[in-house]
Specification:
Layout lengths: L10 H51 L13 E2 L6 E2 L1 H7 L54 E3 L17 E5 L12 E3 L20 E2 L5 E2 L18 E4 L5 E4 L22 E6 L4
Antiparallel strand pairs: 1-2, 3-5, 4-10, 5-8, 6-7, 8-9
Length: about 280
């Protein structure tokens, strides 16, 4: 009688196959991770270009004036109303078509309903790299999921001789923007408190700035900074509405030769005097 042919795997063969699969996974995972990061970075740049188109529409409808979120990173439709910033202004003006979340209103004074557009969880104002270990410091608050406007668009310009109290909400024309100045970046919805004399603070830990100095060594979380969401780099949008990824711009500050951050305050126009409570 013929003996039945042997079928199945031996334990050794099974372990060899499992080992090979494990090695392949170990080889492929970093590649897949990089591919995912690259896809998120490309989608982020696409978002920025769409926002750039919205800025351009806004400019055409407003004689070349860029939207201002107002002093201290927000503006109000009226005293006591909801806090808004530049994404809300683009939507309010009809430059970007986006619906408000259910139950929200641009004039709702409730403090729990601030920034209805920049606080969205999805849409063009949310970076596809948000939440992928992109260095937001664990923050999930409105404004931390998308893009920031360069802080020097809206510095606190106060009347001459006044250091506290009322200050003016400034505006600037696109024609006065220095060539190559950064308009938007991966980060908190307005650069606030993150620019220092010699470098831009980020949430990523120590780095060497343009002077060759190791900075940000305390490792503390800087909420209002740039978020390096794209493989230790951020995406940036410029006045000609092109976007680019850079692992360098966050290292440069307002004293960098040919800097891309500072807009001279003399280029701003303070349009009205307002109070801290407005």
């Amino acid at each position: 009688m013929k003996r039945a042919s042997k079928t199945g795997f031996t334990l050794v063969e099974l372990l060899v196959v499992i080992g090979i699969i494990a090695v392949l996974i170990a080889i492929l995972l970093p590649t897949l991770r990089r591919a995912r990061q690259a896809a998120a970075a490309s989608a982020c740049l696409s978002n920025m270009r769409q926002i750039g188109i919205a800025f351009n529409i806004y400019l055409n409808e407003n004689k070349g004036w860029l939207p201002s979120p107002g002093p201290n990173r927000d503006f109000r439709v009226k005293p006591g109303s909801i806090s808004l910033t530049w994404p809300e202004r683009l939507v309010l003006a009809g430059s970007m078509k986006q619906n408000l979340p259910k139950g929200w209103s641009f004039t709702d004074p409730q403090g729990s309903r601030q920034y209805p557009i920049s606080g969205s969880l999805k849409g063009v104002f949310v970076c596809p790299g948000w939440g992928m270990g992109g260095d937001e410091g664990g923050s999930d608050r409105p404004g931390s999921r998308g893009y920031g406007m360069t802080r020097y668009f809206v510095p606190e310009i106060r009347p001459p001789g006044v250091t506290t109290g009322p200050y003016w909400g400034p505006f600037i024309k696109i024609s006065k923007m220095p060539k190559g100045t950064i308009v938007l970046f991966d980060g908190y919805h307005l650069m606030q408190g993150a620019i220092k004399p010699d470098y831009i603070s980020t949430n990523s830990g120590p780095f060497t700035n343009w002077q060759g100095t190791l900075v940000h060594t305390d490792g503390s979380y800087k909420q209002y900074g740039i978020y390096l969401r794209h493989n230790k780099a951020a995406n940036y949008l410029f006045p000609d509405w092109h976007g680019e990824r850079s692992d360098f711009y966050h290292k440069t500050g307002d004293k960098t030769p040919g800097n891309k951050w500072v807009i001279d305050q003399k280029l701003f126009v303070p349009v009205r005097e307002i109070t801290e409570g407005d």
